[in-house]
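Appendix C: a fully annotated inverse folding record. The material below is reproduced so that readers can follow the format used throughout the book. The structure is listed first as tokens, followed by the designed sequence.
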């Protein structure tokens, strides 16, 4: 007598419309609380402007082209630093994962570099490379470098040993092992590090612009602070939040698209 295996219960798929409704309600609640605090506390506009004043300042800076110009500058710095830092972190991460001796040699310097706040390094980079865009790109790359590096090393070392032995038994070349086994196996952990790096790159760009710049959203924050235009500061901060969330969402979409085979494989089990 044979017993049929019970079918695996399928998890309900997330409803995007429900998520959008919850997000809209959360934003509406936050705006209502902000407006209530501004009205109850009755603070001057240069200390706590209400949502209406910030919205008016947003429209004004958008119409003049000020917000678009500075946002594009910061976005260029962020994307360039993210690509540069991720590239070098991936290459070094692969070398460290394959060479324990190299890891022992380089690890102390990597750990020591993370004990120094980027705020302390940014002025030196601005002095050495000037207040232009390159120093901001370099700051973004440095702040992205470590999380992507660690996730690359961890992802490559999580490759199942039996699969590596199988590739060797099939006389696979190093390139074939890399693209057919190691990259697909390490990709989930690598993309998790890239998500973290995408948000950190925005912080790196702002830190560099606050130290010394003549353009960018960090520069716009300095302008608003110097002119006691707190509404402009709010506009720049909200633009930075939107940029970080957009980059995080793009990496998440790439992750879902690239790793779609994982969900298909789980459904087949």
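Designed amino acids, in order:
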């Amino acid at each position: 007598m044979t017993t049929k295996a019970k079918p695996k219960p399928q998890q309900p798929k997330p409803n995007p419309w429900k998520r959008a409704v919850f997000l809209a309600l959360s934003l509406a609640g936050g705006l209502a609380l902000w407006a209530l605090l501004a009205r109850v506390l009755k603070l001057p506009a240069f200390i706590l402007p209400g949502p209406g004043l910030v919205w008016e300042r947003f429209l004004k800076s958008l119409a003049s082209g000020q917000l678009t110009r500075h946002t594009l500058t910061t976005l260029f710095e962020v994307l360039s630093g993210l690509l540069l830092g991720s590239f070098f972190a991936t290459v070094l991460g692969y070398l460290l994962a394959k060479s324990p001796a190299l890891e022992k040699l380089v690890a102390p310097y990597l750990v020591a570099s993370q004990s120094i706040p980027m705020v302390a390094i940014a002025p030196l980079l601005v002095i050495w490379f000037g207040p232009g865009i390159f120093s901001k790109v370099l700051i973004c790359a440095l702040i992205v470098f470590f999380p992507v590096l660690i996730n690359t090393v961890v992802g490559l070392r999580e490759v199942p040993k039996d699969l590596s032995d199988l590739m060797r038994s099939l006389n696979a070349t190093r390139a074939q092992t890399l693209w057919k086994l190691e990259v697909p196996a390490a990709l989930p952990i690598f993309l998790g590090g890239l998500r973290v790096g995408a948000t950190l790159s925005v912080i790196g760009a702002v830190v560099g612009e606050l130290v010394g710049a003549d353009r960018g959203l960090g520069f716009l924050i300095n302008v608003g602070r110097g002119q006691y235009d707190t509404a402009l500061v709010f506009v720049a901060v909200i633009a930075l939040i939107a940029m970080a969330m957009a980059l995080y969402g793009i990496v998440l979409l790439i992750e879902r698209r690239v790793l779609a085979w994982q969900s298909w494989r789980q459904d087949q089990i």
